[in-house]
Write a structure and sequence with these properties.
Largest sheet: 5 strands, antiparallel
CATH architecture: Roll
CATH class: Mainly Beta
Number of helices: 1
Strand content: over 45%
Order of helices and strands: HEEEEE
Radius of gyration: 11 Å
Number of strands: 5
Helix content: 10-25%
Shape: globular
CATH topology: SH3 type barrels
Number of domains: 1
Length: about 80
């Protein structure tokens, strides 16, 4: 996944559908950046879908280079999470 897609979803305030670790997920992007090892990352709130941890909802840190597919959805992101 390219950086610009995470940034575009964040700027547009839209949810993103991604395939990550073999699971389809609906996420709200909160930040896009890099790790200390220079891996591209995005911090997301996962609204639904599968996960390796069996936690379908909650905060996730995803490596953009491990995101296989993505679609910016026509659903508003609620973005503010604590």
């Amino acid at each position: 996944m390219w950086w610009h897609v995470g940034c575009e979803a964040l700027q547009a305030g839209k949810r993103l559908r991604v395939t990550y670790d073999g699971y389809s997920r609906i996420v709200e992007v909160h930040a896009v950046g890099t790790s200390r090892d220079d891996n591209p990352l995005m911090r997301v709130w996962q609204c639904s879908g599968g996960s390796v941890s069996n936690e379908p909802i909650g905060w996730k840190l995803m490596r953009l280079d491990k995101t296989w597919s993505f679609v910016i959805m026509d659903e508003r992101s609620e973005v503010i999470r604590r």
